[in-house]
Amino acid sequence: MSDPTLTGKPASEPRIDPPMGLLAELTHRCPLQCPYCSNPVELERRSDELTTADWQRILCEAAALGVLQVHLSGGEPAARRDLTELVATCAEQQLYSNLITAGVNISPQRLAELADAGLDHVQLSFQGATPEVTEQVSGLRGAHDKKRAFAAEVRALELPLTLNVVLHRANIDQVDDFIALALALGAERLELAHAQYYGWALHNRSALMPPRAEVMAALAKVEQAQARLKGRLAIDSVVPDYYARRPKPCMNGWGRQTLNVTPSGLGLPCHAAQRIPGLEFWSLREHTLADVWYRSPAFNAFRGTDFLPDTCQRCERRDIDFGGCRCQALMVTGDARQMDPVCEFSPWHDDIQTLAIADSARDAAFAYRRFARRGE
User: pTM for the full model?
Assistant: First the structure.
Protein backbone atom coordinates (compact mmCIF):
# COMPACT_ATOMS: atom_id res chain seq x y z
CA MET A 1 0.00 0.00 0.00
CA SER A 2 1.29 3.44 -0.90
CA ASP A 3 1.96 6.33 1.45
CA PRO A 4 -1.00 8.76 1.13
CA THR A 5 1.40 11.70 0.86
CA LEU A 6 2.29 10.46 -2.64
CA THR A 7 -0.97 12.00 -3.83
CA GLY A 8 -0.01 15.40 -2.57
CA LYS A 9 -2.78 15.23 0.04
CA PRO A 10 -2.27 15.75 3.80
CA ALA A 11 -1.06 12.65 5.64
CA SER A 12 -4.04 13.01 7.98
CA GLU A 13 -6.44 11.95 5.21
CA PRO A 14 -7.44 8.27 4.86
CA ARG A 15 -4.99 6.07 3.07
CA ILE A 16 -5.69 5.23 -0.55
CA ASP A 17 -6.04 1.48 -0.97
CA PRO A 18 -4.76 -0.21 -4.14
CA PRO A 19 -7.36 -1.05 -6.78
CA MET A 20 -8.98 -4.47 -6.85
CA GLY A 21 -10.05 -4.45 -10.50
CA LEU A 22 -8.74 -3.30 -13.85
CA LEU A 23 -10.99 -2.83 -16.88
CA ALA A 24 -8.66 -3.31 -19.84
CA GLU A 25 -10.42 -1.84 -22.87
CA LEU A 26 -8.26 -3.52 -25.48
CA THR A 27 -9.99 -2.06 -28.54
CA HIS A 28 -13.08 -0.16 -29.63
CA ARG A 29 -13.48 -2.40 -32.70
CA CYS A 30 -16.63 -4.51 -32.56
CA PRO A 31 -18.70 -6.68 -34.96
CA LEU A 32 -21.95 -5.46 -33.37
CA GLN A 33 -23.65 -2.08 -33.77
CA CYS A 34 -25.57 -1.89 -30.49
CA PRO A 35 -27.46 1.38 -29.97
CA TYR A 36 -26.93 1.16 -26.19
CA CYS A 37 -23.12 1.14 -26.49
CA SER A 38 -21.62 3.28 -23.71
CA ASN A 39 -18.29 3.75 -25.45
CA PRO A 40 -17.52 7.35 -26.48
CA VAL A 41 -19.13 8.77 -29.59
CA GLU A 42 -15.65 9.26 -31.05
CA LEU A 43 -14.03 5.84 -30.97
CA GLU A 44 -10.29 5.22 -30.81
CA ARG A 45 -8.76 3.76 -33.96
CA ARG A 46 -6.79 0.57 -34.27
CA SER A 47 -3.71 2.55 -35.24
CA ASP A 48 -3.81 4.28 -31.82
CA GLU A 49 -4.15 1.11 -29.75
CA LEU A 50 -1.54 0.01 -27.24
CA THR A 51 0.85 -2.68 -28.41
CA THR A 52 1.06 -6.18 -26.98
CA ALA A 53 4.17 -5.19 -25.04
CA ASP A 54 2.39 -2.13 -23.64
CA TRP A 55 -0.49 -4.21 -22.34
CA GLN A 56 1.80 -6.89 -20.92
CA ARG A 57 3.73 -4.23 -19.00
CA ILE A 58 0.46 -2.75 -17.67
CA LEU A 59 -0.73 -6.19 -16.56
CA CYS A 60 2.53 -6.81 -14.72
CA GLU A 61 2.23 -3.41 -13.06
CA ALA A 62 -1.37 -4.22 -12.14
CA ALA A 63 -0.29 -7.37 -10.32
CA ALA A 64 2.46 -5.47 -8.50
CA LEU A 65 -0.03 -2.75 -7.53
CA GLY A 66 -2.42 -5.25 -5.94
CA VAL A 67 -5.07 -5.69 -8.65
CA LEU A 68 -6.89 -9.03 -8.31
CA GLN A 69 -9.18 -9.12 -11.35
CA VAL A 70 -8.68 -8.02 -14.95
CA HIS A 71 -11.71 -7.58 -17.18
CA LEU A 72 -10.66 -7.89 -20.82
CA SER A 73 -13.14 -5.75 -22.70
CA GLY A 74 -13.68 -3.46 -25.66
CA GLY A 75 -15.39 -3.11 -28.15
CA GLU A 76 -14.80 -6.76 -28.79
CA PRO A 77 -11.51 -7.93 -27.20
CA ALA A 78 -11.32 -10.87 -29.59
CA ALA A 79 -10.66 -8.36 -32.38
CA ARG A 80 -7.13 -8.25 -30.96
CA ARG A 81 -4.92 -10.97 -32.40
CA ASP A 82 -2.82 -11.00 -29.23
CA LEU A 83 -5.71 -11.83 -26.87
CA THR A 84 -4.29 -15.27 -26.01
CA GLU A 85 -0.92 -13.72 -25.15
CA LEU A 86 -2.59 -11.21 -22.86
CA VAL A 87 -4.60 -13.94 -21.12
CA ALA A 88 -1.37 -15.87 -20.62
CA THR A 89 0.25 -12.80 -19.05
CA CYS A 90 -2.70 -12.52 -16.64
CA ALA A 91 -2.22 -16.15 -15.65
CA GLU A 92 1.54 -15.70 -15.20
CA GLN A 93 0.88 -12.70 -12.95
CA GLN A 94 -1.83 -14.57 -11.00
CA LEU A 95 -4.49 -12.11 -12.14
CA TYR A 96 -8.04 -13.46 -12.43
CA SER A 97 -9.04 -12.91 -16.07
CA ASN A 98 -12.61 -12.26 -17.19
CA LEU A 99 -13.29 -12.09 -20.92
CA ILE A 100 -16.20 -9.76 -21.76
CA THR A 101 -17.28 -10.74 -25.26
CA ALA A 102 -20.09 -10.74 -27.81
CA GLY A 103 -19.16 -14.34 -28.60
CA VAL A 104 -19.65 -14.07 -32.36
CA ASN A 105 -16.06 -14.07 -33.62
CA ILE A 106 -14.25 -16.61 -31.41
CA SER A 107 -13.87 -20.05 -32.95
CA PRO A 108 -13.93 -23.20 -30.78
CA GLN A 109 -10.20 -23.62 -31.45
CA ARG A 110 -9.39 -20.10 -30.31
CA LEU A 111 -11.57 -20.44 -27.23
CA ALA A 112 -9.69 -23.64 -26.34
CA GLU A 113 -6.42 -21.75 -26.75
CA LEU A 114 -7.66 -19.05 -24.40
CA ALA A 115 -8.66 -21.68 -21.85
CA ASP A 116 -5.26 -23.38 -22.14
CA ALA A 117 -3.60 -19.98 -21.64
CA GLY A 118 -5.37 -19.66 -18.29
CA LEU A 119 -8.63 -17.79 -18.93
CA ASP A 120 -10.70 -17.86 -15.73
CA HIS A 121 -14.16 -16.65 -16.72
CA VAL A 122 -16.32 -15.67 -19.69
CA GLN A 123 -18.96 -12.93 -19.66
CA LEU A 124 -21.15 -13.23 -22.73
CA SER A 125 -23.51 -10.49 -23.89
CA PHE A 126 -27.00 -11.15 -25.24
CA GLN A 127 -28.98 -8.35 -26.86
CA GLY A 128 -32.21 -10.32 -26.93
CA ALA A 129 -33.62 -13.59 -25.61
CA THR A 130 -34.78 -14.51 -29.12
CA PRO A 131 -32.99 -14.40 -32.49
CA GLU A 132 -35.27 -11.64 -33.76
CA VAL A 133 -34.52 -9.22 -30.92
CA THR A 134 -30.80 -10.08 -30.81
CA GLU A 135 -30.49 -9.28 -34.51
CA GLN A 136 -32.66 -6.16 -34.23
CA VAL A 137 -30.47 -4.69 -31.48
CA SER A 138 -27.03 -5.92 -32.53
CA GLY A 139 -27.46 -5.32 -36.25
CA LEU A 140 -25.78 -8.69 -36.98
CA ARG A 141 -27.63 -11.46 -38.78
CA GLY A 142 -27.25 -14.87 -37.13
CA ALA A 143 -25.80 -13.37 -33.95
CA HIS A 144 -28.14 -15.23 -31.58
CA ASP A 145 -27.27 -18.70 -32.84
CA LYS A 146 -23.55 -17.86 -32.78
CA LYS A 147 -23.85 -16.76 -29.16
CA ARG A 148 -25.67 -19.92 -28.13
CA ALA A 149 -23.05 -22.08 -29.85
CA PHE A 150 -20.27 -20.11 -28.19
CA ALA A 151 -21.89 -20.54 -24.77
CA ALA A 152 -22.02 -24.29 -25.33
CA GLU A 153 -18.30 -24.32 -26.11
CA VAL A 154 -17.57 -22.31 -22.95
CA ARG A 155 -19.43 -24.82 -20.79
CA ALA A 156 -17.83 -27.77 -22.61
CA LEU A 157 -14.47 -26.40 -21.52
CA GLU A 158 -15.88 -26.08 -17.97
CA LEU A 159 -15.25 -22.35 -17.87
CA PRO A 160 -17.56 -20.31 -15.60
CA LEU A 161 -20.15 -18.42 -17.66
CA THR A 162 -22.01 -15.18 -16.96
CA LEU A 163 -24.66 -13.82 -19.30
CA ASN A 164 -24.77 -10.04 -19.50
CA VAL A 165 -27.91 -8.26 -20.70
CA VAL A 166 -28.51 -4.55 -21.15
CA LEU A 167 -32.22 -3.89 -20.68
CA HIS A 168 -34.08 -1.21 -22.61
CA ARG A 169 -37.38 -0.64 -24.38
CA ALA A 170 -36.80 -3.28 -27.09
CA ASN A 171 -36.12 -6.19 -24.72
CA ILE A 172 -37.42 -5.31 -21.24
CA ASP A 173 -40.45 -7.55 -21.79
CA GLN A 174 -38.07 -10.54 -22.15
CA VAL A 175 -36.79 -10.68 -18.55
CA ASP A 176 -38.35 -14.10 -17.90
CA ASP A 177 -36.98 -15.34 -21.22
CA PHE A 178 -33.45 -14.14 -20.37
CA ILE A 179 -33.63 -16.04 -17.09
CA ALA A 180 -34.76 -19.18 -18.90
CA LEU A 181 -31.98 -18.71 -21.45
CA ALA A 182 -29.33 -18.43 -18.73
CA LEU A 183 -30.56 -21.66 -17.15
CA ALA A 184 -30.67 -23.46 -20.51
CA LEU A 185 -27.10 -22.42 -21.34
CA GLY A 186 -25.72 -23.49 -17.96
CA ALA A 187 -24.70 -20.01 -16.86
CA GLU A 188 -23.74 -19.53 -13.25
CA ARG A 189 -24.63 -15.85 -13.20
CA LEU A 190 -26.97 -13.49 -15.06
CA GLU A 191 -26.51 -9.73 -15.01
CA LEU A 192 -29.56 -7.69 -15.97
CA ALA A 193 -28.42 -4.08 -16.20
CA HIS A 194 -30.64 -1.27 -17.40
CA ALA A 195 -29.05 0.92 -20.04
CA GLN A 196 -26.68 3.60 -18.78
CA TYR A 197 -26.97 6.75 -20.85
CA TYR A 198 -23.40 7.69 -21.73
CA GLY A 199 -21.54 7.79 -25.03
CA TRP A 200 -23.51 6.38 -27.93
CA ALA A 201 -26.32 5.26 -25.60
CA LEU A 202 -27.03 8.88 -24.71
CA HIS A 203 -27.47 9.55 -28.43
CA ASN A 204 -30.18 6.84 -28.41
CA ARG A 205 -31.84 7.64 -25.10
CA SER A 206 -35.23 8.47 -26.63
CA ALA A 207 -35.23 5.10 -28.43
CA LEU A 208 -34.01 3.08 -25.43
CA MET A 209 -35.86 4.52 -22.42
CA PRO A 210 -38.70 2.23 -21.26
CA PRO A 211 -41.80 3.51 -19.45
CA ARG A 212 -41.73 3.43 -15.64
CA ALA A 213 -44.45 0.77 -15.44
CA GLU A 214 -42.40 -1.63 -17.56
CA VAL A 215 -39.29 -0.97 -15.46
CA MET A 216 -41.16 -1.71 -12.22
CA ALA A 217 -42.66 -4.88 -13.69
CA ALA A 218 -39.21 -6.07 -14.79
CA LEU A 219 -37.71 -5.40 -11.36
CA ALA A 220 -40.50 -7.39 -9.72
CA LYS A 221 -39.83 -10.37 -12.01
CA VAL A 222 -36.12 -10.21 -11.20
CA GLU A 223 -36.76 -10.17 -7.43
CA GLN A 224 -39.07 -13.18 -7.70
CA ALA A 225 -36.49 -15.09 -9.76
CA GLN A 226 -33.68 -14.22 -7.34
CA ALA A 227 -35.64 -15.83 -4.50
CA ARG A 228 -36.79 -18.80 -6.58
CA LEU A 229 -33.36 -19.62 -8.07
CA LYS A 230 -31.14 -18.85 -5.08
CA GLY A 231 -28.24 -21.32 -5.08
CA ARG A 232 -28.88 -22.28 -8.71
CA LEU A 233 -28.46 -19.05 -10.66
CA ALA A 234 -27.06 -15.82 -9.27
CA ILE A 235 -28.95 -12.85 -10.72
CA ASP A 236 -27.45 -9.39 -10.44
CA SER A 237 -29.81 -6.49 -11.10
CA VAL A 238 -28.57 -3.00 -11.96
CA VAL A 239 -31.56 -0.69 -11.62
CA PRO A 240 -32.16 2.23 -14.00
CA ASP A 241 -30.87 5.54 -12.70
CA TYR A 242 -33.55 7.79 -14.17
CA TYR A 243 -36.40 6.21 -12.20
CA ALA A 244 -34.49 5.76 -8.92
CA ARG A 245 -34.79 7.63 -5.62
CA ARG A 246 -31.21 7.13 -4.50
CA PRO A 247 -28.03 7.10 -6.60
CA LYS A 248 -25.75 4.12 -7.01
CA PRO A 249 -22.18 4.36 -5.69
CA CYS A 250 -20.66 4.85 -9.14
CA MET A 251 -17.61 2.56 -9.43
CA ASN A 252 -18.06 2.02 -5.67
CA GLY A 253 -16.57 5.47 -5.28
CA TRP A 254 -14.33 7.47 -7.61
CA GLY A 255 -10.79 6.09 -7.48
CA ARG A 256 -11.56 3.64 -4.66
CA GLN A 257 -11.61 0.13 -6.12
CA THR A 258 -11.23 0.02 -9.91
CA LEU A 259 -9.65 1.78 -12.85
CA ASN A 260 -10.02 1.70 -16.63
CA VAL A 261 -7.37 1.79 -19.32
CA THR A 262 -8.59 2.88 -22.76
CA PRO A 263 -7.39 1.30 -26.03
CA SER A 264 -4.89 4.13 -26.50
CA GLY A 265 -3.65 3.90 -22.91
CA LEU A 266 -5.41 6.63 -20.93
CA GLY A 267 -6.03 5.79 -17.28
CA LEU A 268 -9.61 6.62 -16.27
CA PRO A 269 -11.39 6.52 -12.89
CA CYS A 270 -14.56 5.42 -14.69
CA HIS A 271 -15.60 4.38 -18.16
CA ALA A 272 -17.23 7.72 -19.05
CA ALA A 273 -14.89 10.10 -17.19
CA GLN A 274 -13.59 11.73 -20.38
CA ARG A 275 -16.89 13.58 -20.79
CA ILE A 276 -15.99 15.74 -17.75
CA PRO A 277 -14.13 18.85 -18.94
CA GLY A 278 -11.03 20.09 -17.16
CA LEU A 279 -9.77 16.71 -15.93
CA GLU A 280 -6.18 15.73 -16.70
CA PHE A 281 -5.86 12.07 -17.66
CA TRP A 282 -2.42 10.48 -17.63
CA SER A 283 -1.31 8.05 -20.31
CA LEU A 284 0.07 4.62 -19.50
CA ARG A 285 2.54 5.18 -22.33
CA GLU A 286 4.23 7.79 -20.11
CA HIS A 287 3.32 6.80 -16.54
CA THR A 288 3.18 3.63 -14.50
CA LEU A 289 -0.14 2.25 -13.34
CA ALA A 290 0.79 3.13 -9.75
CA ASP A 291 1.49 6.73 -10.78
CA VAL A 292 -1.91 6.96 -12.46
CA TRP A 293 -3.74 5.43 -9.51
CA TYR A 294 -2.10 7.38 -6.70
CA ARG A 295 -0.93 10.62 -8.25
CA SER A 296 -2.85 11.54 -11.41
CA PRO A 297 -5.03 14.67 -11.20
CA ALA A 298 -8.11 12.94 -12.64
CA PHE A 299 -8.11 10.19 -10.00
CA ASN A 300 -7.69 12.66 -7.16
CA ALA A 301 -10.31 15.09 -8.49
CA PHE A 302 -13.32 13.39 -6.85
CA ARG A 303 -11.82 10.98 -4.34
CA GLY A 304 -13.67 10.88 -1.04
CA THR A 305 -16.61 13.20 -0.41
CA ASP A 306 -15.09 16.58 0.53
CA PHE A 307 -16.04 18.06 -2.85
CA LEU A 308 -19.77 17.36 -2.41
CA PRO A 309 -22.33 20.08 -1.45
CA ASP A 310 -23.56 20.59 2.12
CA THR A 311 -26.69 18.47 1.62
CA CYS A 312 -24.51 15.43 0.87
CA GLN A 313 -22.12 16.20 3.72
CA ARG A 314 -25.02 15.90 6.18
CA CYS A 315 -26.45 12.73 4.59
CA GLU A 316 -26.08 9.36 6.34
CA ARG A 317 -25.45 7.76 2.94
CA ARG A 318 -22.48 10.03 2.15
CA ASP A 319 -19.96 7.21 2.54
CA ILE A 320 -22.26 4.63 0.96
CA ASP A 321 -23.05 6.16 -2.44
CA PHE A 322 -20.37 8.92 -2.46
CA GLY A 323 -22.79 11.36 -4.03
CA GLY A 324 -23.49 9.08 -7.01
CA CYS A 325 -22.29 9.57 -10.57
CA ARG A 326 -20.09 12.54 -11.49
CA CYS A 327 -20.91 12.26 -15.20
CA GLN A 328 -24.64 12.25 -14.53
CA ALA A 329 -24.31 15.24 -12.23
CA LEU A 330 -22.51 17.12 -15.00
CA MET A 331 -25.02 16.13 -17.66
CA VAL A 332 -28.08 17.37 -15.78
CA THR A 333 -26.78 20.11 -13.48
CA GLY A 334 -23.75 21.33 -15.45
CA ASP A 335 -21.50 20.74 -12.41
CA ALA A 336 -19.66 17.44 -11.85
CA ARG A 337 -19.27 18.32 -8.16
CA GLN A 338 -23.00 18.40 -7.53
CA MET A 339 -24.94 15.50 -6.04
CA ASP A 340 -26.25 13.00 -8.56
CA PRO A 341 -29.65 14.35 -9.74
CA VAL A 342 -31.06 10.84 -9.29
CA CYS A 343 -31.08 11.52 -5.53
CA GLU A 344 -34.52 12.50 -4.24
CA PHE A 345 -32.90 15.32 -2.25
CA SER A 346 -31.37 16.91 -5.34
CA PRO A 347 -32.96 20.13 -6.68
CA TRP A 348 -32.65 18.52 -10.11
CA HIS A 349 -34.39 15.25 -9.21
CA ASP A 350 -37.64 16.24 -10.92
CA ASP A 351 -35.69 17.23 -14.04
CA ILE A 352 -34.22 13.76 -14.54
CA GLN A 353 -37.58 12.13 -13.89
CA THR A 354 -39.12 14.44 -16.50
CA LEU A 355 -36.40 13.46 -19.00
CA ALA A 356 -37.18 9.78 -18.49
CA ILE A 357 -40.93 10.22 -18.92
CA ALA A 358 -40.52 12.35 -22.03
CA ASP A 359 -38.05 9.97 -23.68
CA SER A 360 -40.12 6.88 -22.89
CA ALA A 361 -43.08 8.45 -24.72
CA ARG A 362 -41.15 9.08 -27.92
CA ASP A 363 -41.37 6.64 -30.81
CA ALA A 364 -37.74 6.98 -31.89
CA ALA A 365 -35.80 4.54 -34.06
CA PHE A 366 -32.36 3.16 -33.17
CA ALA A 367 -29.32 4.99 -34.52
CA TYR A 368 -26.88 2.15 -35.03
CA ARG A 369 -23.20 2.50 -34.31
CA ARG A 370 -21.14 2.31 -37.50
CA PHE A 371 -17.43 1.53 -37.43
CA ALA A 372 -15.21 3.17 -40.02
CA ARG A 373 -12.51 0.99 -41.54
CA ARG A 374 -10.15 3.87 -42.07
CA GLY A 375 -7.20 3.86 -39.72
CA GLU A 376 -7.46 0.13 -38.93
Answer: 0.92
